[in-house]
Amino acid sequence: MFERYQGGESAILVHINFADDNEREALDELELLADSAGVTTCAVVTASRGAPQSKFFIGTGKVEELAALVQMHQADVVIFNHSLSPAQERNLEREVKCRVLDRTGLILDIFAQRARTHEGKLQVELAQLRHLSTRLVRGWTHLERQKGGIGLRGPGETQLETDRRLLRERIKYIQKRLEKVSRQREQGRRARQRNEIPTLSLVGYTNAGKSTLFNRLTQAGVYTADQLFATLDPTLRKIELPDAGPAILADTVGFIRHLPHDLIAAFKATLQETRDADLLLHVVDCADEQMRENIHEVNSVLEQIEADEVPVLMVFNKIDKLESPSPRVEVDDEGRPCAVWVSAQEALGIDGLLEALNRLLAGVLVEHQLTLPPSAARLRSRLYALNGVVNESFGEQGEYVVDIRLQQADWHRLLKQEGEQLERFISD
């Protein structure tokens, strides 16, 4: 039904430098996006403007230059590094005689290529439908005619109106399916909260090395590649920390400048993992010249999804690309880890990262030795469920001698529930 750009074609890239910093994009990022979509770049057109032109976005002289380049290279598509209105896309296509795609459309297409799970495909389709709903008229210029023929004459719904209605119905259907997915994820989160298992969420600019770090910490074998948006579908794995015990690590989609709002809305269920996390690991490519701008963009998206209040540990990745790589852990004024310098690819600084996570999640630990009679089997089972048993042996009368290490909150909860009976078992 929909006219969609397909990867593997030749393209001409268009990049405009604006005076307004809020409108600026990076040319090298457009080239990376095009490469990630499987595009062969024939030429790059650049220009400087104070503001976009209303009809073509670029000036008429640049439109003529673009049309000549399209004809010279027999290009299949022209890709703008900016957001175009539906009217601007139509006007440009009329002049250059080929498909015109804006930055949002390119990102959506990359997402469509990367989605693997059913949930991911639904999320991408929802974002595409919302984006294409305003552009439906372009590929269907004949559809303003009303239906005709025997039994179909007279006033009625135009074909374009029919397709818009079908589009709205499909969007509603996908939204219902995603609401069901969201409820299922919420149940999983509640179960983890009941078991008091902390959740760590990897966030960061796209291609910062989140999935490589995820694989290094969990041995998960998640797909990684040196390209933008290599990861779309969220992956959760359990890791064990020496003192803090088990934790859930979530790998999430990377962020990018001016991430389309339709994508943020469509990926709400996925991004919920980030908002509900106990700790965010903000992964940064420290070898990137635009490191500070990337950090700002990630913080901006975290604010949009209401995750800016979650505690953050900065993880500066790819130190192997620096002149003098030095893995280290930085602490704040209170002595708490606030930044870690690592190389996930070369396994540098990973022990320091695990120790930082341990210190942030473990809190105050309580250590005791308990002597439990056979009748206290239920209590012993609870201690194992809390992952608090460090060592266990048997006494001369067949009792259990258990060395435990628990977070202070867990210990006080046990004392409150078990009362004086638990205190009687303390033998240290």
UniProtKB/TrEMBL annotation:
Keywords: Cytoplasm, GTP-binding, Magnesium, Metal-binding, Nucleotide-binding. The gene is hflX. NCBIfam families: GTP_HflX (TIGR03156), PRK11058.1 (NF008280). Mg(2+) binds at residues 211, 231. GO terms for cellular component: cytoplasm. Its main location: cytoplasm. It is found in: Cytoplasm. Coiled coil: none annotated. The keyword GTP-binding applies. GTP binds at residues 204-211, 229-233, 251-254, 317-320, 343-345. Belongs to the TRAFAC class OBG-HflX-like GTPase superfamily. HflX GTPase family. Monomer. Associates with the 50S ribosomal subunit. GTPase that associates with the 50S ribosomal subunit and may have a role during protein synthesis or ribosome biogenesis. InterPro entries: EFG_III/V (IPR035647), G_HFLX_dom (IPR030394), GTP-bd (IPR006073), GTP-bd_M (IPR032305), GTPase_HflX (IPR016496), GTPase_HflX_N (IPR025121), GTPase_HflX_N_sf (IPR042108), HflX_C (IPR045498). Pfam families: GTP-bdg_M, GTP-bdg_N, HflX_C, MMR_HSR1. One of its GO terms (molecular function) is metal ion binding. Its cofactor is Mg(2+). This is GTPase HflX.
